[in-house]
Amino acid sequence: MVATKEMPLKEYVLKGNAACAGCQDMVALRHANKALEGDVIQVVPACCTAVVQSLWPKSGLGIPVLNTAFMASAATASGVRAALKAKGNDHTTVMVWAGDGGTFDIGIQALSGAFERRTDFLYICYNNQVYSNTGTQSSGATPIHAKTTTAWFGKAEPEKMFDFIVAAHEPVYQFTANTSYPRDLFDKVKKAREFEGPKFGHIFLPCPQAWNYPVEKGVEIGKLAVETGYWIQWERVGDEFTLGRHSKRFQDPEKRKPIDEFLKMQGRFSHLYKPKRADKKIKEFEDFIQHRWDMLMRTFT
Question: What is the CATH number of the domain that holds 58?
Fold first, then answer.
């Protein structure tokens, strides 16, 4: 893992951008672009990052960025890669930077097509589990029982286990990351540069606006997601699967922190505790966590 003192000093996420206070997207974007050292063309569909990037001729990012329609980011990236190939450029990374709405839901068709074509690009889904930029509506990544503006009493369905959908497309490299562990994120994005073909990164990214927690608690919530077993850190090169060191300690359910520590910090789950604790719903949440662990270990090991 890269040492903090070895992290590149140059910043590609510029000061004074339009991100919300406590936005964890900026943590992820900052370290991902440091890992790519500016040799990147970033494709951004409709999402929070499109707001941060701002309108031409101003920009909150110090890299080339191409905005595209909500559903078209992976298709656009395929075109950018073809153009670079025609110019003889085989070193610049083409990176999609899309939210969960533009990945799990609206962008899944284009993503599937680009992976089938074996497009040489890196697709990053920064997952804040809701359509944050358009009013905090539920997405396919919203957890069961989380409140949104389209699920006032909590979402009735569990989130899609999207990593398995991606794995079925056999990317050359696939990883999960978490903004609370930025050096791990940096290392994985840097590693993605070593592979030719479709790569996919899935980043857990707390959102203070949509999840309703104090802006300074983002890192704490991200760590609790791992320590309760809710979020699993791993990577996969071809068929070679590695469980991340941050998650390995919590593979045993007995060693995990109580899920209450994660849920109680977020206003979107407050209805599970007021006026009466909803034990059945919390148990459903815990059961989903274990189901995802079982699926992951059964599928990849």
Answer: 3.40.50.970
